TrEMBL record:
The chain crosses the membrane at residues 6-28. Keywords: Membrane, Transmembrane, Transmembrane helix. This is Secreted protein.
């Protein structure tokens, strides 16, 4: 074989290999860019959901601080409507959060803010204070998530609060409730 033909053949193989490597690099870069964009989109959705949950928690805390004493009946109904809606809203937006432990913690806290065990003897003020503590625990968890930190451990008082009604942890789905009076909201079972 002539040396010039051999040089041309080697050159052609080199061009083909270089072109293939360039095309492969472009495909890899596009796939990597698509994955990075998808990860950024999911993180953006999760952050938006966390911010929506934070807004809901702050609204719930405000309603718990105000209570329903010395208010008109329509304001009283609004108070209970917000508490019933709280659990559903948190559970809905928590689905965008990638951390299963965080989702479970937020759902449990929201549930315990809304309801209590059968025959609950706590005063209204005590229920409201404990509900605000559960909201604070959820806010702390979301803050840790937004800072990309691990979910913090529950403090002793919150753990004791949840331990009073261990069977309540099994109710992790949405709760449909008819209109209820103050006594029914915290003192009824879910059966």
């Amino acid at each position: 074989m002539d040396a010039s033909v051999l040089d041309a053949l080697i050159g052609l193989i080199g061009v083909a290999a270089g072109g293939g490597a360039a095309c492969g690099g472009v495909v890899y870069q596009q796939r990597h860019g698509t994955r990075a964009a998808d990860t950024a989109r999911r993180r953006g959705e999760a952050v938006a959901a966390a911010e929506r949950i934070l807004a809901e928690l702050l609204t719930t805390q405000q309603h718990l601080r105000q209570g329903f004493h010395d208010v008109a009946e329509d304001e009283r109904q609004e108070y209970f409507r917000v508490l019933r809606r709280h659990h559903a809203t948190v559970q809905l937006y928590a689905q965008w959060l990638p951390d299963a432990q965080l989702r479970d913690r937020l759902s449990t806290n929201a549930l315990y803010v809304q309801i209590g065990p059968l025959g609950d003897q706590r005063s209204d003020a005590q229920r409201r204070v404990e509900g605000m503590a559960l909201c604070t625990d959820s806010i702390s968890c979301l803050g840790s998530y937004l800072r990309s930190e691990a979910v913090p451990h529950r403090d002793n008082s919150t753990s004791e609060l949840l331990a009073r009604w261990p069977e309540g942890r099994e109710f992790h789905t949405f709760i449909f409730a008819e209109r209820q009076s103050e006594g029914d909201l915290h003192g009824s079972s879910l059966d």
